[in-house]
Amino acid sequence: MNFHSQALINLSCFHHNFKVISEYVGENVYIIPVIKADGYGHGIVRMARELETYKNVAYLGVAHIKEGVLLRKNGIKQKILAMSCIDSFDMDMTNEFDITPVVHNIYLLKKVLDYAKKIDKQIKIHLKFDTGMARLGIRKEDVEEALTICKNNKDYIKIDGLMSHFSDSESDKDWTMVQFENFKNIIRYFEDSGFDIKYKHIANSAAILNYKKMHLNCVRPGIILYGCMPSPYMDKKLDLKPVLEIKSQLVSIHPLKKGEVISYGRTFTADRDIKVGVVAFGYADGLFRSLSNKMECIVKGVKCKNIGTICMDMFMCDLTGVDADVSDEVIIIGKDKESSITIDDLAKKSQTINHEILTNIGKSIRVQRIYLN
Description:
By secondary structure, this protein is of the alpha/beta class. The chain has 11 helices and 19 strands.
């Protein structure tokens, strides 16, 4: 395949971020690095391999069982926690590939118990509780039943962890505190009932940065592993380094006269004579069409404005005044000289979050990943 576009993934930056997070939470706090969604677009298998040597990694955090299976089939030996969308049909795979499921309702807990009895084996799980997110999690009225089932079936169910998830730890301190107190009460209830819980975790990236006391003995960093802040409005408390750069190239250069229009829908009309560069990167490669006429790219150290509607395979930019040639490098995310474009820049202009920018670009099979040490 002839790749015009490249995702440059700086592994030294990834390791730097993991180490500063580790130092921040302290040596008594385990880490569950979240590498779901293909490692936030950075490559789930490679990210897992980079984490193999760290002794403070409790689990590798994935979303789906199939992500865990992919890791196992690629030789990953670390413990894997499948955090969502587990159903009773996944139990054979969790058992075969030694993946720990997160159980988030009574129905699934009973299914896990039935399966454990069927194969006559104790199954290790994490129980997830809804403390205010109202998405996945055992609800308040079902906590007692969950405890009773686990207490009466210790030969078949081993609770290795209790967990929950914050809904607004980026900005709402009061609500986050409500959720945290709810979770602490659940932990206390289980521990007072005789359970020895190894891992207790609720802190996502924002809570890791904002609330030290909510680290408990285990945290789940996601977006900060990749050098991005959970919210552009948060204070940058850690020296995080962006892991990803996106580069493409110019495939054509041509003039556009004053009054002429360009691209689908004729959304841009030249107000002067300009020089147009066509860049081999489009919405099939992860750009949002909502960035049309809003985003910039960097050519020869100069920021160049996108003109016209972003196409499936390419977008156009105003190269006026830039001494550029066909095949020259174009930076979509990254920096050159004094110019830089961040993931947050693209997120803001497309009215989304940096998580979506990363995972959307990461889906493209046409963007060649290159890992840099």
